[in-house]
Amino acid sequence: MIVFKNIQEIQEYLKKLKKSKKLLGFVPTMGALHSGHISLIEQSKKENEVTICSIFVNPTQFNSEEDLKKYPRTIEKDIKKLIEAECDVLFYPDCNEMYPKEEINSAEDYGHITSRLEGKFRPGHFNGVINIVTKLFATINPDTAYFGQKDFQQCAVIKELIKRNGFNIKLNCCPTLREEDGLAMSSRNMRLSNEERKQASQIYVALQWIKLNFKAKTVAELKMEARKIIEEMPLLKTEYIEICNADTFEIMPRKIEGRRLVALAAVYCGNVRLIDNLVLG
Ligand code: AMP
Question: Looking at domain 187-276, which of 3.40.50.300, 3.30.70.100, 3.30.1300.10, 2.40.37.10 is its CATH number?
Fold first, then answer.
């Protein structure tokens, strides 16, 4: 695996690669890699001749200094996992490389997609995501970019980002990989204590309950019961649980035939904030 730390060097490499017309897949991450990330690498390897993974803990998408400081950083283990997965290239820039002092970040507003749910509870988060992903796409310009449905709202933001910037990049939003008890894999799971880790799987129990009872109950009943299921666990505190239009992120007060809906939750498990979702129907 080739490792690049600066933009100029990776672009020189990419210039040569593009001449050979090889299909290029790109998997952006913040590191602390787990099997969910590796599943994106594997998908990219199936569909492309060259796969690039980036690891960059993007400070502008954190709305809490504490969360940024505590975000796990495990670069040596990450490199080992990427080599095992036969990833071709790692882009591992530092902060000065991605945010040169002379550049000003733009303020982006994609309507409901960036203002609801994660946008509401983590002000500035999607602005940071949009800024960094725009830079990464402009640097790497892959044929296809791979993101996880685990961050369902982020997938919608990236879809809109590609459209608004006119990038010629295909977006592949891949399924969520889960632990045996259903907890969505996440770099943040490393920060859970044993007891928190046990209780965290209740988030998936609640989302599945919504899916199973979707036809029989009203939206208000579904959300109320799911919140109760989560908070049966003393270490869990629900920040939001909503049922939304899966394309526009409008919160649905009731079910409407023919709309693709998704149940999304953000839950504090101790001090660790976890998100998960399930598409309904
Ligand atoms: P992150 O490092 O958390 O920014 O995640 C990098 C990419 O991996 C994002 O597109 C995530 O949605 C995706 N991802 C994170 N967790 C999972 C998972 N459990 N299954 C599949 N993809 C995931």
Answer: 3.30.1300.10
